[in-house]
Amino acid sequence: MARVSVCHILEATAGGTRKHLDLLLGSLDRDKFDLSCVVSPNREPGFAADLERFRSLGVRVETVSMRREISPLADWRSYRGVKRALRTVSPQIVHTHGSKGGFFGRLAARAVGVGSVVHTPHVFAFQWNAGLKGRFYRALERYAARRCDRIIALSESQKRLTVEAGLLPPERVEVIANGVDPAAYPSAHPAGEIRSRLGLGAEGPIVVMVARLMPQKGCRNFIRAAALVLAELPEIRFCLIGDGPMEEELRAEVGRLGIEGNFQLAGHVERASDTYTAFDLFVLSSLWEGMPYAVLEAMASRLAVIATRIPGTVDLVTEGETGHLVTPDSTEEIASRIVELMRDDALRRRMGEAGRRRVEEEFTLGRFTRAHEELYAKLASG
Hints:
The chain has 13 helices and 13 strands. A 7-stranded parallel beta sheet has the order 3-2-1-4-5-6-7, sandwiched between helices. Strands 10-9-8-11-12-13 form a 6-stranded parallel beta sheet, sandwiched between helices. It folds into 2 domains: 193 residues, Glycogen Phosphorylase B (Rossmann fold), CATH 3.40.50; 181 residues, Rossmann fold. By secondary structure, it is α/β, with parallel strands linked by helices. Strand 4, helix 4 and strand 5 form a beta-alpha-beta unit.
């Protein structure tokens, strides 16, 4: 049987979407699929190394400059660039990712006559934009959705959001959850070595959050919750791993609250999930998500998780079993749950083990890959 040619289109080359593409291109069966990608090199300098690895795996790589922000002239050039790339690659299936790449990719794929078009939103722009701007982005998503055969939701809650927004009927929305390889977690790096590398002391309990320092992640809520926890448990330390545009103002917030001695802003760490053995509890205070790899990796590393009750995380964290779900923006609730779990080592360990089992049963890389392969094969066969 001839291989099915699939082209992925992505603008957002940082964070979870980058990891998603990396895992997908690295795990699809090369005997069944001929793979290519059209990506923007603009946003993440480290993405260049990913592109070289893709090429070494036999993936054809085309680059087209795409900006995250709306810019009519630049966007028109990007759209034309994506069309040219698709004519060059000539795939049977186009699989688009994210907002900007998803919009250009779906329109361009239909314009050049690609047989089947699939879109993974990861997270919708209308989730974090209210009022007129939110309605505008929802209208764009509806327009683009009419030009694809399937939308891949990362979770059941995202599928409900997709259907309720009027993008596609439920029978054309597939749920394929993100997955990781449980064998890769937890890492074999000694906890003491990791703590030393991050500038943390060798002893004592540490609560960690891993996130881009941007409004989406609600990092200020994590910092403020830490201050509340320290009023009750002054021996606890906190570590926020990640970089981003809010770094300076978050450092200022730590200083304003007077918790510099117990709160470490560690900056960017390559393969941050390799550090999880050094920590005792994982927190994610995001305001919106698709399905966060950071939570999956924490669960695979046997860490109990406290996360906000939003689409994506509610499909990962089982309340009271693998961790706790808290109200977005509620620093008091985050702090209360941290205090509860840091006072009960046995409960924290039980939750960590339950999280690991859940990943092994429901969120493996093998399941993630097979589901994509089955969808591509079904679309290719008509």
